[in-house]
Design a protein that fits this description.
The chain has one domain: Rossmann fold. The protein has helices spanning 19-29, 59-67, 86-94, 105-114, 128-138, 143-157, 172-186; strands spanning 8-12, 33-35, 39-40, 55-56, 71-77, 80-85, 98-102, 119-124, 165-168. 34% of the residues are buried. By secondary structure, it is an alpha/beta fold. Helices cover 43% and strands 21% of the residues. The protein has a five-stranded parallel beta sheet, with helices on both faces. It has a four-stranded mixed beta sheet with strand order 4-3-6-5. It binds guanosine-5'-monophosphate. Residues 15, 38, 42, 73, 75, 77, 82-84, 102-104, 106-107 line the site of guanosine-5'-monophosphate.
Length: 187
């Protein structure tokens, strides 16, 4: 088994399914896990902190890092670039941590190609209606963006069977515990 691959947990799920809250819960309750902080060209939401939630970059900076082969994977999602920096993974695994990547389906498939031992988990919303309600309650996207993300969500749900495991997010604590149990069961 590759040392890096077996220490990676890749989480995907449609925007608004609550995966970020679930992952924060895992990281806050189990010190073995740390987050891979992705780079993005999307604009920062008011509550987000640069370097903690994302590394916010200009398109020019992002393209420079693509050219420098600094990404393990990157993609264009709803008009913005997102990518996992190799340095995030390598440094954190070398420090003895299990690194959690919260990335969309194309990125997850690309990580699995490079690291077949990585554990991939799809977090599914209870339903598309509930997903829309959560997205609207979050209040961080305008109507056009919500529609675009809902369309993307139904597309993403079609990929869930390619993941090692699917976990439904009804309750944050329960969903987080299921993910930890799966990791402990397969590692
Ligand atoms: P959001 O804009 O809602 O923070 O993220 C949009 C989507 O991009 C989410 O599905 C999120 O998981 C995904 N994402 C975040 N970081 C990365 C990354 O580094 N690579 C890929 N492929 N997707 C990412």
């Amino acid at each position: 088994m590759s040392e890096i691959g077996k220490n990676l947990v890749v989480i995907s799920g449609p925007s608004g399914c609550g995966k970020d809250t679930v992952v924060k819960h895992i990281i806050n309750t189990d010190p073995r896990f740390v987050l891979s902080v992705s780079a993005t060209t999307r604009s920062k939401r008011p509550y987000e902190v640069n370097g903690v939630d994302y590394i916010f970059l200009t398109s020019q900076e992002f393209i420079g890092k693509i050219a420098g082969s600094e990404f393990l994977e990157h993609t264009l999602y709803c008009g913005n670039y997102y990518g996992t920096l190799k340095s995030q993974i390598e440094e954190k695994v070398a420090a003895g941590k299990v690194v959690v990547l919260v990335i969309e389906v194309e990125g997850a498939a690309n990580v699995k190609k490079v690291y077949p031992d990585a554990l991939t988990i799809f977090v599914a919303p209870p339903s598309l209606e509930e997903l829309e309600r959560r997205l609207r309650n979050r209040g961080t996207e305008d109507d056009g963006t919500i529609k675009q993300r809902l369309f993307k969500a139904s597309e993403e749900l079609g990929f869930k069977s390619s993941y090692d495991y699917i976990v439904e997010n009804n309750y944050v604590e329960q969903c987080a515990q299921s993910i930890i149990d799966i990791f402990d069961g397969v590692k």
